[in-house]
Amino acid sequence: KGFVPYGATFLMFMEYARNGLRMSALMKQRAIQVFTHDSIGLGEDGPTHQPVEQIASLRLTPNMDTWRPCDSVESAVSWKSAIERTDGPTSLIFSRQNLKPQPRDAQQLADVAKGGYVLLDSAAPAEIILIATGSEVQLAVEAHAELTAQGKAVRVVSLPCTDVFETQSAEYKESVLPAAVTKRVAIEAGIADYWYKYVGLNGKVIGMTTFGESAPAEQLFEMFGFTVKNVVETANSL
C-alpha cells in the first residue's frame, strides 16, 4: 500500500513492454508509464530510436489513457489525472526538446483535464481549426498568428488526451470541434492516419507516413514538414 507502480523509458522501448502494457489495461491496473523522447525530435540516433506508430498504438489500446502534453501545465494536469485514476493505466508521453509554456485563462486551465480544449480562437467564428499535441502545439500557435495576420479566422485546439476527450459530453466536444467547421488540419510528429477521425477525409494531417531518419532534430522537422510555413500553406490549401 502507498506506492503507485510506474515505469520510465524512451517511448520507442514501449515495444519491449507491450504485453505488460496490454495486460495492465485489460486487468484495470493503476500503473503509470512515463515515456520520453517521443518523436523524430530524438535526432541522430535515427529511425530505430524514433517512435512513429507507438503513440497511436497506445491510444488504440482499450482502457489505456494516453497523454501527450504540450508544456509544463499540461504535464502537471496529465500527472494529476494519472495519479487520480484507479481503474486502469496511464501513459504519459514527453518530448526530448524544450517546449514553450502556453498562456491560459482559468477556464482553459480547467478544461485541460477534459483531454482537449480551445487554446486560441478568433474574433469571428472560426473557418478553420488547427489540432495539435505535444511539441507541435507551438507550431499551431505560431501558424495561428500568421494566418490571423492574413485575415483568416483560426482556432487552435490542444488535444493532449484523446481518450479522456472522448469521454466528455457531446455538447462539450461540439464546443471544441464544431461539426460545422469542416476545414481542419491536425499536426503531430507521429503516424498521420490516427488523426483522420478528427479532421475527416477532406481535412489535412501533417504527420509521419514513413519511419524517421538520422539527422539533427531541426533538420528532420523541416524535412518532414513540421514547420510553421508548412502549417500555414496546408491551412491555406483548404
Task: Give structural notes.
- It is a single chain.
- By secondary structure, the protein is of the alpha/beta class.
- The chain has helices spanning 18-26, 54-59, 72-84, 106-112, 137-149, 162-165, 170-176, 196-199, 217-223, 228-237, and strands spanning 6-10, 32-36, 65-67, 90-93, 117-120, 128-132, 154-158, 184-191, 204-208.
- The strands form two sheets. It has a five-stranded mixed beta sheet with strand order 5-7-6-8-9. It has a four-stranded parallel beta sheet with strand order 1-2-4-3.
- It is globular.
- It starts with 5 loop residues before the first strand and ends with a helix.
- The mean pLDDT is 96.
Secondary-structure element pattern, one letter each: EHEHEHEHEEHEHHEHEHH
Report the structural category. Answer: alpha/beta
What is the approximate shape? globular
Proportion of helical residues: 25-40%
